[in-house]
C-alpha cells in the first residue's frame, strides 16, 4: 500500500482511506463502492491513475508521483446543492497547497489569470492555478443509489511531479514551481483542509460563506474573459459568481450574463481570440 495517511482531524470525523499504488480511475472506483453499499466519507488515493477523466470526457493523465484523490460523498435529496462540492474541493486544495508549499512569489502566467493576491488561485468552475497555469483539476461525478440517495465522487487531480506540455493552455506542476512536496504530504494536508471547508459548507447551508471564500481566491476577477459555450464564444468582464456559484460576466454589449457551464479563458488568451 502507498504511504498515504489521513489527517487526525479527518480520521476523528469518521473519514476512511483506501490507498492504491496504481488505479484505473479513483472516481470510477468510488462510485463502484457506493453502488455496493459504501456509506461514504471514503477517500480513494493513488500516485498513478491509468484511466483518469477530466471534464467533458477529456483525458486526465496521472503519471507516477502525481496525486489522484477522490472523496466519496453519499447524500440524501438535493443533488443541485451537492454540485457545489466542487467549490469546496477547490478551496480545500488551495488551503492545503498554502500549507505545504513554502512561501514565495509565484508570477503571473501566460493566461493572464494571476492577480498577485494569492499564490494559488481558483479558476471557475474547477481548476486550481499557479503562475496562471493549471496545476490541478476537479471533477464531480454522481450516481443515483435509490430511495432519494445519491453518490458523489469528488475527484481531485494534482500535477505534483509532472505536467503535460501538449495542451492548448499553460500547465505546471509543484516540481516545476520548485517545490519538493510529494503526493503523500499534499494529501495529508488536503484531508485536513477538506474537513474544515466541508464544515463551512454544511450540506449546502453554508454555501454563501463558501462563495465568499472562493471569490477571495478567484482567478481573473474583474478582468477580460472569454467563455466558450456549446461552440460559441462570449466575451466580456468577469464580475462575480452568483449565489448558486454560476459564472457572471458583463458582455461586450453591457448586458449581464449568467453562465452555468463553459470553458473559461482569461487575459491575453481571451483578447487574442485564440479559443
TrEMBL record:
The keyword Nucleotide-binding applies. It catalyses: biotin + L-lysyl-[protein] + ATP = N(6)-biotinyl-L-lysyl-[protein] + AMP + diphosphate + H(+). It comes from the Bacteria. Keywords: ATP-binding, Biotin, Ligase, Nucleotide-binding. Residues 16-202 form the BPL/LPL catalytic domain. One of its GO terms (molecular function) is biotin--[biotin carboxyl-carrier protein] ligase activity. This is biotin--[biotin carboxyl-carrier protein] ligase.
Amino acid at each position: 500500500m502507498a504511504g498515504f495517511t489521513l489527517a487526525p482531524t479527518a480520521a476523528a470525523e469518521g473519514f476512511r482511506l483506501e490507498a492504491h499504488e496504481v488505479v484505473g480511475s479513483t472516481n470510477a472506483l468510488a462510485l463502484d463502492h457506493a453502488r455496493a453499499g459504501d456509506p461514504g466519507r471514503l477517500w480513494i488515493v493513488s500516485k498513478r491513475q491509468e484511466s483518469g477523466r477530466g471534464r467533458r470526457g477529456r483525458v486526465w493523465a496521472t503519471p507516477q508521483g502525481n496525486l489522484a484523490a477522490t472523496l466519496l460523498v453519499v447524500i440524501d435529496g438535493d443533488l443541485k446543492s451537492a454540485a457545489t462540492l466542487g467549490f469546496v474541493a477547490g478551496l480545500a486544495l488551495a488551503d492545503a497547497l498554502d500549507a505545504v508549499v513554502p512561501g514565495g512569489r509565484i508570477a503571473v502566467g501566460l493566461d493572464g489569470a494571476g492577480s498577485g493576491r494569492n499564490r494559488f488561485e481558483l479558476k471557475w468552475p474547477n481548476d486550481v492555478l499557479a503562475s496562471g497555469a493549471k496545476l490541478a483539476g476537479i471533477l464531480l461525478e454522481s450516481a443515483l443509489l435509490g430511495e432519494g440517495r445519491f453518490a458523489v465522487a469528488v475527484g481531485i487531480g494534482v500535477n505534483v511531479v509532472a505536467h503535460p506540455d501538449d495542451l492548448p493552455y499553460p500547465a505546471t506542476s509543484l516540481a516545476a514551481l520548485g517545490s519538493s512536496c510529494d503526493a503523500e504530504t499534499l494529501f495529508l494536508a488536503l484531508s485536513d483542509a477538506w474537513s474544515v471547508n466541508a464544515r463551512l459548507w454544511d450540506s449546502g447551508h453554508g454555501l454563501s460563506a463558501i462563495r465568499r471564500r472562493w471569490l477571495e481566491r478567484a482567478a481573473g476577477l474583474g478582468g477580460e474573459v472569454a467563455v466558450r459555450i456549446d461552440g460559441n464564444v462570449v466575451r466580456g468582464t468577469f464580475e462575480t459568481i452568483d449565489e448558486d456559484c454560476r459564472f457572471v460576466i458583463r458582455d461586450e454589449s453591457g448586458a449581464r450574463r449568467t453562465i452555468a457551464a463553459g470553458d473559461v479563458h482569461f487575459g491575453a488568451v481571451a483578447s487574442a481570440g485564440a479559443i
